From TrEMBL:
Gene symbol of the encoding locus: Mief2
GO biological process: mitochondrion organization; positive regulation of mitochondrial fission
SMART domains: Mab-21
Coiled coil: none
Gene3D superfamilies: 1.10.1410.40, 3.30.460.90
Domain Mitochondrial dynamics protein MID51-like C-terminal: 151-340
Segments traversing the membrane: 21-47
Organism whose genome encodes this protein: Probosciger aterrimus
Major location category of this protein: mitochondrion
Protein name: MID49 protein
Cellular component terms (Gene Ontology): mitochondrial outer membrane
Membrane topology listed for this record: Single-pass membrane protein
Length: 459
């Protein structure tokens, strides 16, 4: 009776364990695949045998039985080792199914059927990547071309204003020998960019060279070779009043400040600009708050500014009444603009070069860029002139190479904080920049050396 109960209890345990194993094996193929299921089956069989041997009564002292048990254990272990290993693909099969779920019949083997032919694909042609050369030429033609109406109407209005201003000065100040006023600026000289937004009117101040002499910039109070002083000479023999410009003397020097202040009063209070504007179909009014002699002109088709510059041409120097900011008076700024334009055009004419194209692109980029706007104008022109001394190939086909070379040269000058003038190496064209501005410009242009397209993006 006791043996029967032990055997019945053993059968119940076997049945319970068997049902669990059956469910496990039923799910094995779904979860692990065919090979994985085989491995699990063999391993389960070996475990089941070990359990059977562990729970079955052992024949104590029977060496043959012990030997048989040991052999069966090694056989089970051999079965496990000999089982095929699942491949990587089988190991990575989806394990999202629950491990224990009702057994499902094995899925039928998938039938291989020919897929319907796919419709022919129409491959889209990828957009062609433009070279830097093509981008520069596109930028030059699209963004830097001044509208024809502005390009013709703005100079026409400026010449009419120049004529009216000339008549007024001759009638109001006949004792002052002003020369003939003339227009200047990038728009008229072919180096303009973006828009016809600014034109200069040059007002020549004619001096008697026997009564006036130039003091070099190094000897001035600011020790800057770009600024000059105009000294009244021989006052012992030719006292004050001998020159019509003696009324603008301060401490024996012709004061650019006093001359500008006098002209500013005339522009603001003495000239009937509403009448002149009505005659020209425009609205003209002087900028009262500006230290410069500036006019704003508004027409139905164009708006621009005019700046009046008294200019002295003496001893092969061109000096503008544009003193530096601060308390320093009497200083005249040496201008190289006329020489710059003449030299660039001369070089281009000699080798059919694209210096003017390159200069217009660079000036347009700098003028519209919040960080680089102070590099527009003379600094860019002088860099191109410096580079022309070492780079001879300025053909239009080499525009991209020269453009990148200009950027590299500019970064080098910014690192030194010095850009020497092409016409006078003592003059540093960066002297008006502060350290923070130089750092910001250098960082921007250093990036642009490897990615020039950054400068051609819309602002």
């Amino acid at each position: 009776m006791g043996d029967f109960m032990r055997q019945r209890s053993k059968r119940q345990e076997d049945n319970g364990l068997g049902s669990v194993l059956d469910v496990l094996l039923a799910n094995a193929r779904l979860v692990l695949g065919v090979t994985g299921a085989a491995v699990l089956a063999i391993a389960t069989l070996a475990v089941k045998r070990l359990i059977d041997r562990a729970t079955s009564p052992r024949d104590e002292g029977d060496p043959k039985a012990e030997q048989k048990t040991l052999e069966e254990s090694w056989q089970d272990l051999a079965l496990i080792k000999a089982a095929p290993k699942p491949t990587k693909k089988q190991r990575r099969e989806d394990l999202s199914e629950p491990l224990l779920c009702p057994a499902r019949p094995p899925a039928p083997e998938p039938r291989v059927c020919s897929a319907p032919p796919e419709p022919p694909r129409v491959e889209s042609i990828p957009p062609r990547c433009l070279t830097l050369q093509e981008k520069l030429l596109s930028h030059y033609s699209s963004r830097l071309a001044v509208p024809e109406v502005e390009a013709s109407l703005a100079p026409q209005l400026a010449r009419s204003i120049c004529t009216q201003l000339q008549r007024f000065l001759r009638s109001k100040c006949p004792e002052l020998p002003f020369g003939n006023l003339f227009l200047s600026g990038a728009l008229l000289d072919g180096l303009g960019a973006l828009a016809a937004d600014h034109i200069h009117i040059m007002l020549p101040v004619v001096l008697d060279t026997a009564l006036w002499s130039l003091i070099p910039g190094e000897d001035t109070v600011v020790r800057n070779p770009q600024y000059w002083m105009i000294k009244r000479t021989d006052l012992e023999y030719f006292p004050r009043g001998c020159s019509p410009w003696d009324r603008f003397i301060v401490g024996r020097y012709l004061s650019s400040n006093v001359l500008n202040e006098t002209l500013h009063k005339l522009l603001v209070a003495s000239i009937n600009w509403p009448a002149i504007g009505s005659l020209l179909g425009s609205i003209i009014h002087p900028v009262v708050a500006s230290q410069e002699l500036k006019l704003e002109v508004k027409h139905d088709q164009v708006e621009f500014c005019i700046t009046l510059f008294p200019v002295v041409e003496m001893e092969d120097k061109v000096l503008l009444a544009a003193p530096p900011e601060g308390l320093v008076e009497n200083l005249w700024l040496e201008s190289f603009y006329k020489a710059e334009v003449s030299k660039v055009k001369e070089l281009d004419a000699g080798d059919a070069g694209a210096r003017q194209h390159c200069l217009r692109i660079l000036n347009g980029i700098c003028k519209s860029h919040p960080t680089l706007h102070k590099l527009s104008g003379s600094p860019m022109t002088h860099i191109i002139l410096h580079l022309s001394a070492t780079s001879s190939d300025w053909a239009e086909e080499s525009l991209a190479e020269r453009f990148q070379e200009v950027l590299e040269e500019l970064v080098g000058y910014l690192e030194q904080g010095v850009l020497p003038s092409y016409f006078n190496h003592k003059i540093n064209l960066f002297c008006q920049l502060v350290e923070e501005e130089i750092d910001e410009m250098g960082f921007m242009l250093y990036r642009a050396i490897t990615e020039p397209e950054l400068l051609l993006k819309e602002k």
